[in-house]
Amino acid sequence: MNHGLLRRLHSVRGRLAATVALFGVALVAIVAVLTWMEADSIFAARRDQLKTVSQVAYKVVELQYQQFKAGKISEPEAEERAKAAVRAMRYNIDDYFSVFDDNVVVIVNGGRPEREGNDGRKSVDPSGKYFVIEMQKLAADKGEGFVDYLFPRPGAALDQPSPKLTYAKWFAPWKWTISTGVYVDDISTQIWNQVFVSATVALAFLLAIGGLAGVVVLGLCRRLDGLSKAMLMLAQGQNDVVVPDTGAGDEIGRMAQAVQVFKDAAIEKTRLEADAETTHRHAEEARAAHEAEKAEEARQLQFATDALGEGMEHLASGDLAIRLETPFQAKVDKLRLDFNRSVEKLHVLAIQDTTAIRVDEKGIGLSAHPLIAVDANEGTVLGLVDVCFLKRQGGERDKRKQRDFEDKDSRRWLRGAESASALAEAGAVCVTVIEDREGDIYECFAFKPGNVEKLVRAAQDRLLADGTHLFAKADEWTEAGQMTVELPAAPGRKARQALLSVRYGSVEIKRPSNRKRSQGARELPKTLSLRLVDAREINPPEGEEAAHWRLLTTHQVNDIADARRIIGFYRIRWTVEQFFRTSKTKGFNIEALRQQQDGPLEKLVTAALIATVTVMQLVAERDGRAGRPLTDAFDPDDQPALERVCQSLEGKTDKQKNPHPKGSLAFVAWVLARLGGWTGYYGKPGPIVMLRGLTEFHAIKHGWNLRDV
Questions:
Q1: What is d(CA 174, CA 170) in angstroms, rounded to the nearest whole number?
Q2: Which among 86, 88, 54, 82 has a CA at the least distance from the CA of 68?
Q3: Which of 144, 215, 495, 648 is the right S-S partner for 169, CB 3.0 to 4.6 Å?
């Protein structure tokens, strides 16, 4: 079975085409039936004609027989008259009659009289039919009948027979067979002509109907195909397909409108599913994010707990350099900041150095050696811890090596460390004494108080216990990291940003060979275990000497973060240089004091240094950066007077109003800056402005204190 044909017949196009084809077959069948009926009608007409004319011939013979029966003529005469009459009869111009006796002998042949007397039993057509015998037998048995056979037309060759139809009728009284026949090939021609005409008309009709049906079928199929494709695409989820014929008013249009409804429903379903999927996905993402957030919070909380625990262990073991560098989660990072801030607030830098007060070009005269306390975190000055005065006289240099350490001027560096220990006793968890190269003294490391740490810039390329030297040892170490610092301006050097290469490690310093083993009641150890942090500038500007700091410290230095912290502490040492500038050219100008030494001058310098600390505190807190209270630098009783003065200084604009809270050191700084001449609009007030304001306030304060006298 042809499955392809079956598939095509299952389609609308195939069914419509099959309908048209069936119509064509039916039309052909109708034409065939009509043609057959027409042919049958023609044959029937011929048969009727043959019967009619044969009936005439029969009547002629019967008339002669009746004449005989009536006795009017004899039977032989009647037979002869009948033969003559039949022999002379014609119809259709050339058609004639033949008569055979009961012996099948031709007794009459109207068309070919010469054949009369021939034996009809010998007559046979090309198909082998003995047609005369068949006619005689049919007539004798049934009285009449038709016989068809092949026989040449008159004048035609014997091998060119034509179909012929003969009617034979039995005349019983004389046992004659009266017959006449006609050629029927003209009937076939007539029939085929009729078939041709009918077929032509049918074909034209079929072509017209088929063409019209084809146009209709193709149009319907095209529309149905478009609708089918749209439905298939919709079934495949392609909801953007355009449904054709939705505007048509016929059945296909109504089908298209129904498909459009399905499409709209599918689009809405897809939208609802997408919305549901989006909602579900968002819910899942939110749930996953929430779970991840909770897990991360738990991890961060555990990390913070572990880090804080480790930090507390370091503090408990005396490691006050510990800092929690890795940020915690935002919610708990305040704990880390508070921890670091607490440690740093507990960490005080005790910075000491020597500055000339009244010294000649030979270095002879009076110098001051202050020790100032600085916040390790903020870098702000907390106060003046101690100050000692040096009175250098000529001729002492040659005797320096003969004196014990306790009798030397360099003993002041150890005294500063001893004074700094009071800070630890007062509550500072960590105190680090910071000194420049002049403080690089073996005894100061050996005899420092146990509750302070020491950080000094190395001046001596000391011999180490392993036989190497300090500076060469640092050169052997590989770089541990880098850091960028701001180098302040110095004589012969502009301020710049420097990139430092950092190295660090532990060293075992050997006791100098020129030192006595015993220093009074104390024993000078053979070696000291210290840490060395080496910071050297990378690629300094052309023509500039590279910065290079070799820092010896008693602090633990376990990693690059510790090394950077030590460098940061040393950089804060610059605060003492600012302290000296404020006490001299940028402020109190203590070098210009003319009071007498050995009492008055030293007291006045000490007072000026205390005031210098206050001025530096005011400058540092002018923006309220540290949020320090007024009581860090002033007496609480000063607050009412300061607030009253502030009211008199404030103007109407925001720039002319004190932005800082009352009771804060920043509030005081704003008041004193305004008293010192600062307008509040431009720049920031410096030490000189603060000094003028402080001096002005002390005068106001004196009057304020006398208001009730």
A1: 9
A2: 82
A3: 144
Helix (H, G, I), strand (E, B) or coil at 44: helix
| Phi and psi torsions of 247, nearest 5° | -95, -5
pLDDT of residue 465: 93
199: three-class secondary structure by DSSP: helix
Contacts of 144 (CB under 8 A, 6+ apart): 51, 54, 138, 167, 168, 169, 170
- Whole-angstrom Cα distance, residue 424 to residue 439? 21
Amino acid occupying residue 69: K
Q: Is 467 left (phi over 0), alpha (psi -120 to 50) or beta?
A: left
Q: What is residue 373's three-state secondary structure? A: strand
User: What pLDDT sits at residue 254?
Assistant: 78
Q: Cβ distance 381 to 616 under 8 Å?
A: yes
In the structure encoding, which two tokens stand for residue 190, read together?
Answer: 């007539």
For residue 294, the model assigns a pLDDT of: 75
Give the phi and the psi of residue 468 in degrees, each rounded to 5.
Answer: -90, 180
Q: What distance, in Å, lies between the first and last C-alpha atoms of the chain?
A: 135
Token look-up 């003294």 returns 441
Euclidean distance between CA atoms 472 and 461, whole angstroms: 8
* Rounded CA separation 470/507 (Å): 8
Look at residues 527, 468, 538, 528 and name the one whose alpha carbon lies nearest to residue 503. Answer: 538
492: left (phi over 0), alpha (psi -120 to 50) or beta: left
| Consecutive 10-residue averages of pLDDT for the chain (709 residues) | 57 66 72 68 79 88 91 91 89 86 89 86 86 88 89 78 89 92 77 72 73 70 73 74 77 75 74 77 80 76 74 58 72 68 73 87 83 87 89 65 76 91 86 93 91 94 93 94 90 88 95 76 87 95 91 95 94 88 79 78 86 86 86 88 89 85 91 88 84 88 73
Q: Let me know if 156 is exposed, middle or buried by CB neighbors in 10 A (0-12, 13-18, 19+).
A: exposed
Which whole-number Å values give the CA distances from 197 to 24, 29, 370, in the listed order? 17, 15, 143
Q: Check residue 260 and give its pLDDT.
A: 75
Q: pLDDT value at position 700? A: 87
pLDDT score at 550: 95
Contact 622, 684 (CB under 8 A): yes
277 SS3 class = helix
Measured CA to CA, the distance from residue 179 to residue 170 in angstroms comes to: 9
The one-letter code for the residue type at 606 is T
The answer to whether the CB of 181 falls within 8 A of the CB of 208 is: no
Domain 3-191 coded CATH 3.30.450.20:
yes
The DSSP code for 121 is G
Reduced 3-state DSSP string for 557-599: CCCHHHHHHHHHHHHHCHHHHHHHHHHCCCCCCHHHCCCCCCC
Q: Which CATH number fits domain 348-573: 3.40.50.1000, 3.30.1020.10, 3.90.350.10, 1.10.3720.10?
A: 3.90.350.10
- Of 704, 694, 652, the C-alpha closest to 673 is 694
**pLDDT score recorded for residue 583:** 84
The structural domains of the chain, with segments of one domain joined by +, span 3-191, 348-573, 603-705
pLDDT score, position 463: 93
* 161 three-state secondary structure: strand
CA distance 69 to 58: 16
For 81, the enclosing helix (H) or strand (E) is helix 75-88
Domain 603-705 classified CATH 1.10.260.40?
A: no
Count of C-beta atoms within a 10 Å radius of residue 23: 14
Roughly what angle, to the nearest 10 degrees, separates helices 665-675 and 600-620? 110
- Asked if 420 and 433 count as a contact pair (C-beta separation under 8 A), the reply is yes
> Three-state SS for 350?
strand
Contact of 406 with 389, CB cutoff 8 Å: no
DSSP secondary structure string for all residues of 629-680 = BGGGTS-GGGHHHHHHHHHHH--SSGGGS--SPTTBHHHHHHHHHHHTT--S
